[in-house]
Automatic annotation (TrEMBL):
Organism per entry: Lentibacillus salicampi
InterPro entries: DUF4328 (IPR025565)
Pfam families registered for this protein in UniProt: DUF4328 (PF14219)
Protein name per its UniProtKB record: DUF4328 domain-containing protein
Segments crossing the lipid bilayer: 12-34, 54-84, 150-168, 180-201
Lipoprotein is among the record's keywords: no
Length: 219
């Protein structure tokens, strides 16, 4: 049988990385607006070398912000998946009935193509309901809050949109113009979904400590 261990420290680590991500996404969003306005008067088919030094500096800044974002994202993914795995184990420690997954697959579904468009949400929904309504006999019959599907839809859409320009050669002004537009559309989705995820994680961890811990064997 699993032992209960609070997922609080893992949540805190994930929050630190998420706050960094949100900050970098905000910077990237603002930078993309500046980049778009500076490129607006240039011919799209012209080579990127026609950009002024100031415009090139903004583009360079945007690239550096993107690299820092990627590093923070990797750190967050690791911390988040460790938190999710621990949270699911805690439900087993509390002997919650009707769970449909295993701690390993709470992580594994994120790496299975196509299935990762749906199954991670199903796992998060199950984790949320079983944690929040642990003292309710029919926890499966409870409705998830709207923030749960909104979080997932924004996360998926943001990732799809941000990847549309991933194969660009960035040889012409238009390439950078399109990139700026992609960022201006995708980053707000990323920011809102990130904030919602922090709320979800906090609710789950708080509820587990209040409701599941008394039912569980601790280590």
């Amino acid at each position: 049988m699993q032992n209960y261990q609070t997922a609080g420290p893992r949540k805190t680590t994930a929050i630190v990385f998420m706050i960094t991500l949100l900050a970098m996404s905000t910077v990237s969003f603002i930078s993309s607006i500046i980049q778009s306005s500076m490129l607006a008067g240039l011919e799209g088919n012209a080579p990127y070398s026609v950009m002024t030094d100031a415009t090139a500096l903004v583009v360079l800044f945007q690239s550096m912000a993107n690299m820092l974002w990627v590093l923070a994202f990797i750190g967050f993914v690791i911390a988040f998946l460790m938190w999710l795995n621990r949270s699911y184990k805690n439900m087993l420690a509390a002997d919650i009935q009707g769970l449909m997954h295993s701690p390993g697959w709470t992580v594994g579904w994120y790496f299975i193509p196509f299935a990762n468009l749906v199954k991670p949400y199903v796992v998060m929904k199950e984790t949320y309901l079983a944690s929040i309504y642990a003292d309710t006999p029919n926890w499966k019959g409870q409705k998830p809050p709207r923030l749960l599907p909104i979080w997932w839809v924004l996360f998926i859409l943001g990732n799809i949109i941000s990847s549309t320009n991933a194969s660009s050669s960035f040889e012409t002004v238009r390439d950078y113009q399109v990139d700026a537009v992609v960022v201006m559309i995708s980053e707000p989705m990323t920011i809102v979904s990130g904030i919602l995820l922090l709320i979800i994680m906090n609710r789950i961890t708080k509820s587990q400590n209040n409701k599941l811990k008394p039912l569980s064997k601790t280590s």
